[in-house]
Amino acid sequence: MTEDVLDGRLRIAVVIGSVRRPRMADPLAAWLERELTAAYRLDLDMIDLASVSLPMHEMRAGGAAVSPIAGRLADADAFVFLTPEYNHSFPAPVKNVIDWHFTEWAYKPVAFVGYGGSGGVRAIEQLRAVFPELRATTVRESVLLPMPWEHLDADGRFVPPPGARQALHATMRELQVWARALRSLRAADPAGRE
Ligand SMILES: Cc1cc2nc3c(=O)[nH]c(=O)nc-3n(C[C@H](O)[C@H](O)[C@H](O)COP(=O)(O)O)c2cc1C
């Protein structure tokens, strides 16, 4: 194992799970991008599902080579899902992007930033049941943003309530620990990703 594999800069893909217009996801994604860019030396890839075409009828078990974002997901060391809660679960586009891919998730950590009336906790907890099937692990820490629409300034920018930034940084700390550890696992078991 080379040191570079273990110590190189991490690539984090942030998956924006709402595709509605308008959507609360916009100010929240902008906040995440600002915070993560300012605080960490990461290669950040913001993947907006609203601008990715993944038709449900073209989905294949085991992943589809034609996915326009397969390469971006494969290149990521870890994922942050920005997910709203719809009807006590995560939204359909989130399940769709998960199902469209397979090896891209394997042996990687997934963190969650949830939002909604109750902070998205039920969406997050249900996603925790999905990712082990893809050999991905979910991190304990998470960010819950209840009623984020009450925390917008006059320009529509999200102003995090007390505790939100700390939760984000605790989550990112854990995500990076897992991401570094799982790099070596991926290198050790490439067959497990087929
Ligand atoms: C179809 C639908 C169902 C929803 N169900 C819930 C819910 O069960 N629990 C909750 O806390 N919020 C619920 N909400 C509120 C959303 O979490 C909230 O509107 C959020 O801002 C949506 O994110 P978006 O605008 O980025 O899509 C629901 C919203 C929609 C559109």
TrEMBL record:
Annotated signal sequence range: none
Q: Which UniProt keywords apply?
A: Oxidoreductase
Q: Entry's SUPFAM superfamilies? A: Flavoproteins
Top-level EC class: oxidoreductase
The keyword Oxidoreductase appears for this protein: yes
Q: Which domain of life is it from?
A: Bacteria
Q: What is its EC number?
A: 1.-.-.-
Pinpoint the NADPH-dependent FMN reductase-like domain residues: 11-146
Q: Where are the transmembrane segments?
A: none
In its UniProt record, a GO molecular function of this protein is: oxidoreductase activity
Q: What is this protein called?
A: NADPH-dependent FMN reductase
